[in-house]
Amino acid sequence: MPTQIRPITPDDHEQLKVLLTEAFGTSDGDWAGLAAQGQSWWGAFVDGHLAATINHREYTSWFRGVEVPTAGITGVSIAAEYRGRQLLRPLMEELTSHARSRDERIATLFATATGIYRGFGFSRILQVGSVELPVASLARVRGTLDLRRAGDDDAEVLHGLYEQWARRHDGPLTRRGPAHERPDHRFKDLTGTTIVEDAGEPRGYLRWKRGTAGDWADSVIEVPELVALDAEAMRTALTSLASYDSVASRVRLFSPGDVDTVRWLLPSNAWTPLADTEPYMLRVLDPSAFDLLPAPPGVTATLPFLVGDDGWVLHVDEGTMRIESDPAAATGMGRRLEPGALAVSFAGALASSAQREVGLLSGDDRDDTLWDILFTSGRRLATRDSF
Ligand SMILES: CC(C)(COP(=O)(O)OP(=O)(O)OC[C@H]1O[C@@H](n2cnc3c(N)ncnc32)[C@H](O)[C@@H]1OP(=O)(O)O)[C@@H](O)C(=O)NCCC(=O)NCCS
User: Domain range for residue 173?
Assistant: First the structure.
C-alpha cells in the first residue's frame, strides 16, 4: 500500500477529528484549535486515507534561566487497523526535520506510555498530575497576606508571576508565542483567579473551580494552577482553600513535578496522586542544545563522550558549554551515552549512577562526578502545562 507523509490540510480535518476521537475519546470539542497558529499537523495517508497523525507546536522552554526553542509534540495517533506497521517513524522524522529547520534543539511530549517514544531517544524527565487532599488537612495553615479577585486587566500581572516562577525552574514553557494564543483548556470554566498580594505587591495566584456538586462529600475545589513565589504567599493561598471546609471535602491540585515544594509547607501527610499523572519526556534533537546552557561558575573541563558511533567533546569554561564533534572520542572504551542519556543530562533529571542503573550510560566512569556537578546539582524540574 503506498504511504504518503504530508501536511494535513483543512480538507483532511473531518478524518483527523475521527482519528483523534477514536484514540483519545471525546476531545473538548475545540476543533477550531486544529487550525490554530503555532502548530503544524502531518498525516500518514495510506491509499489516500488518513491512517496516522502527529502535531508540532512551536514552544520555548526555560532551562537554567535560558529560553530553549522547543518542538512540542501532541496528537500522535494511529488508526487501529494500521498499528504495528511502523507508521510513527516516518511521521516523527518529518516532525524532527521541521523542528531542526526551525533551530529547535529539543523536543518534548506528554506520553500515554513511555515505551512508545524511548526508541526515538526520548526520556522521562518528570511527571505531572493531579493530587487530592482533604480540605480539613489544610486547617492548620495560617497565611497572612491579602487576596483579591483577578480582573480582565490582570493578564500581565498573572503572566509576570508565572514567568518569575517559571524561569527559576527547568522545563516550564515560556507561554509566549502563537501556540499560546488559544486559551488553555484546563482553565476553561474557572470560578475565578485569586491573586495573593503583600502590601499591594503580587506574590502568587490560584486559578480555581468550585464545581457544581452541592453535597459536601462530593464537592471538590479544583486548582489547575497555584503559583506562589514565597512561603507566605503559598500559605495564604492554602488558607484561602481551607476556608471551603464547610462546603467541600476535597481540594484537587495540579502538581508540577516529582518534587513539589508545596509538600514542605503542608502540615499533614495527606497527598493522594490521582490516576491522571503523565510523564513528560524530552529528546535532544541536536547536541548543540548544550551550547545554550550556562555552566556552573568555576568549572573548567574537557569531557569526551560517545553517542552511538559518533564521538563528541564537551568543553566547559568560564560559565559556558560548547559541544563539538570529535572523531577521536569515538575510539576506545569511552563514556557512552544512549540518546536518552543526552535527554536526562540536558534536563538534569538523573545523576550518572542512576543513568548507569537504567542502561542509559555505560563505559568509562571517571568523569561521572564532573557531569553530575554540571548537570544535576541544584536543578529544579517542573512544568505547569500539559499538552
Ligand atoms: C501508541 C501508538 C501511536 C503506537 O503505534 P503502533 O503502530 O501501535 O506502534 P508500534 O507497534 O509500531 O510500536 C512502536 C513502539 O511503541 C511501543 N509501544 C506501542 N504501544 C505501546 C504501549 N501501549 N505501551 C508501551 N509501548 C508501546 C512499541 O513497543 C514500539 O517500541 P520500539 O520501537 O522501541 O520497539 C498507537 O498504538 C496509538 O495510536 N494508540 C492510541 C493513541 C495513543 O496512545 N497515542 C500516543 C499519545 S502520547
Answer: 129-276
Query: Would the pLDDT of 385 be above 80?
Result: yes
With cut-offs at 50, 70 and 90, classify the pLDDT of residue 27.
low
Average pLDDT over the chain reads: 95
Asked whether residue 86 falls in the same domain as residue 201, the answer is no
Atom of ligand 1 nearest to the CA of 119: 34
Ligand 1 proximity of 86 Cβ (cutoff 6 Å): yes
Do 50 and 135 lie in one domain? The reply is: no
Mean pLDDT of the 207-227 span = 95
pLDDT band at 33; cut points 50, 70, 90: confident
Domain boundary among 70, 104, 138: 104
Give every CB contact of residue 190 below 8 A, 6+ residues apart in sequence.
Answer: 207, 208, 209, 224
- Tell me, yes or no, whether 237 lies in a domain: yes
The total of structural domains in the chain comes to 2
Q: Does the CB atom of residue 115 touch ligand 1 within 6 A?
A: yes
Residues 6+ apart with CB under 8 A from 121: 283, 284, 338, 339, 340, 342, 343
Answer whether residue 29 shows pLDDT above 90: no
> 81 and 133 in one domain?
no
My answer on whether 189 and 255 are in the same domain is yes
Q: Residue 288: how many CB atoms within 10 A of its CB?
A: 13
Taking CA atoms only, the protein residue closest to ligand 1 atom 31 is 116
Domain harbouring 27, CATH code: 3.40.630.30
Alpha-carbon Rg for the chain, nearest whole angstrom, is 23
Q: Residues 79-101: pLDDT tens digits?
A: 999 999 999 999 999 999 999 99
What's the predicted TM-score (pTM) here?
0.96
Give the integer Cα–Cα distance in Å for 171 and 379: 10
| Collapsed DSSP state (helix, strand, coil) of residue 169 | coil
Same domain, 72 and 183: no
- Residue 30 has what pLDDT? 73
- The cell for 204 is 502568587
Find out whether the beta carbon of 33 lies less than 6 Å from any atom of ligand 1: no
Do 34 and 144 belong to one domain?
no
| Closest Cα to atom 8 of ligand 1 | 83
